[in-house]
Amino acid sequence: MSLRLTLGEIASSGKRVLIVGLGIRGIESARFLARLGIKVVIAERQSEIAFREASKYEADIPALLALGIEVYFGVDGEGIAPKLADVGLVLVSPGVPLESSIMGTVTRLGVPCVSELELGVQLHSGRSVVVTGSNGKSTTTALIEHIIRTNGGRASLCGNVGASVVSHAELPDGSENCTSVLLVDASSYQLESSTVLKPSVSVILNISENHLERHGSLERYATATGRVLRLQSKQDLAVLNADDALVFGMAKSCRAHIGVFGERLPAEMAKVSSTWAHISYSASRFGRIEVCFEGAMESYATETSKLIGRHNRYNMAAAVLVSRRLGISQKTIQEGLNTFSPLEHRLEEIVDDGILKVFNDSKSTTVAASVAALSTVISLYEQQQIVLMIGGLSKAGSWKPLLAEISKAGSTRVKVICFGKDAHLLASHCRSQGVCPEESGSLKDATHAAFSLMPGGGVLLLSPGCASFDEFSDLEHRGREFKRYVHEYFNQGLKATA
């Protein structure tokens, strides 16, 4: 399906596009389509009263109505059927599960359905890069954007971070080809409803237990994530993690040219593809990224990067392969690796007074992400006491990988504080694996409790492994508040050595 042709037919026939879900993606999509002269109707499951009371987008409704966009509240299941009579396309917001009753009706009536993400990708007249996976998406897309800008190019970062994809799509204007690259940070929520998505470059960084409340199982989650590869052809590039069995297994059914990255030996990678990035380590623990691209061997230093941790070597390797595909030189890519600043809330060092180090890793909302953060801190600060703060709203999945990492380091070296709504649940998980945690209520209380456990200094790591919505509006809000609590503590002169 060509969405450009479909939208043209809808506009000429007087049909409408139905958007399911009145979140930010639905609102941005409605505005975008209205600017194209297409009639739009939005269906929201909540009643108008409930929506206005609970949603931060309530103030956007008058502007939508002023554009001639119809908004229906309290519509679900078969209630959507009468609204579909003159609808030529349904656009699904990422917050709406495919198993929902309203989507069941849409499917039963056979109305074509796409996601906001693929609408933006298809309409964009330049190249598109879609990065997905359980962890590392934001860092990898931001690093690619930085490298493109270091090269003097243009890139739009969107999707799961920043603005909606459609708001960054550049439509053909009859002039020379668009040189802007659309960089999409894509979650499984955005990908599972994709039917026409075909990016120029796709990247799957890793697959671990995440969003199981939505998908039900790791296998279904992997299937949703893998839809980014479904329609790619041999003219496109799929960049896959060779060390992740679920990701690497997708190469068998992928029609795109494959690029692989990881710690596997170069000879093993060469059996799969002529395009690969091998992460090697030296006695310094930093090592290099050895790349084979179009038959040429290249080497990239990692010790000069501000990104720390083994997991970030994977992010860098993927970014290098994508950047080379975009035609950026080795010299410029190395410069980009050297000058990139880590994103806020991703192993962000916020205090280092010579005695105590504090890291804000609020972005870690999964167990796998917390494992990566903790293992990095353990390896970098081999003689230091570590206090790990986990908590919030626990997701479905096992905590055993993190608890195994803690046990391996030793309970005398790594102390744990559980906080937030599910503090007691997390504490019970810890005890079942022989880890004895402290329990606290709010993040603020947990932060102060953590300092009390570090009279001689050490490393304090906030890496929650949980969602933030029990206490905060999002993970960024959680991270900002944590930093405020830490700085307040220090400004009051209550240093750990006092």
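The above is record 1. Record 2 follows with the same two-line structure.
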Amino acid sequence: MMFGKAKSLLNSSRLSKTLLIVGIFLLLGVLEYSTPNDYVFGYLYSGAILLISSWFGEVATLQATLFAVSLTMLNIWIPGRETVLVSTVASRAIASIALIVTGFLSQKLQRSQEAINTTTAKLEAQEKLARLREDFASTLTHDLKTPLLGAIETIKAFQQEEFGEVSITQQQVLATMIRSHETSLKFVETLLDVYRNDADGIKLNLSPVDLVDLAETVTASLIPLAAKRRIHISLNYGESDFRRSLWVLGDTFQLQRVFTNLLINAVNHSCRGDRIEVVFDSQASYQVVKILDTGAGILPEHFPYLFERFYQGYSDRQAKGSGLGLYLSRQIITAHGGIIWAENRIDVETGAMFAFKLPVHLFQHGKDCE
């Protein structure tokens, strides 16, 4: 019944539009044929043609254009009471050409509008699908934390011999299992943070932070990983041979993650015996940190994607990552009002530089000078 009502309303609307078009043609026809033929009203048919193009489509527009041109040209000889002048024929020919152009352009515009509408609908559908995927991934990531935490605690209970005696070999296996689960948990937490940051932004706990202190802390924690691969990590304090401080206003935990991500990225792209250098530079408005490696460097086509989510590697990696570290680092640095970038080194044959800069903490800087 509802379908019948809708169809009835549609037919009623179409009938109203048809009657309006017919009325316009009748009115213009009366004006055309009741006035001398040197008065050209044919241009006014363009309004009706535009309406028909919008309401009834291409075939109806073509028919209406031909009809309007015919009425315009026939008025030269009908009703036949006046002498036909060359100027009159020229004027009506020009009006007919204008009507043909109007019909053609109106259809072209209509097709363009339909293409735009189709593209818009596709984009909206893709955005909706992307949002659904993001929500699903975020929910799934959140739900994965609980079983991983439970598994880690259970394995630790076995390690502590709460369920019976455990041999040395079994202890080693359990330790490996814990490390594996903790790695998975860290990935899940990073993924959850990435989705949360995209949706809500990063909530920063700001305080004066010395970037040199953070770099030293993170470097010390990564020494075992670097030592396994015989990679040396050093700190360079710029023009000074002595330790210096680079103060910024930032979130200690989040900035520590940036150092960890960038240094692990450098380790993963380095070969045995390579050297990684953390260089500090204090400028007038920014504190700059550069992480230099001597790996294979970055191919030009990879630069646009380095800080994209899930992008993995710009060379043959020594270890595979999640593809989230650089993306999360960009989120954090951007939230601090800073800039992060990458480029190939020109001071050595091969190697890459990942760097970031953050606004100088003026209050702390001024306090140091007092």
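The first helix runs from residue 2 to 33.
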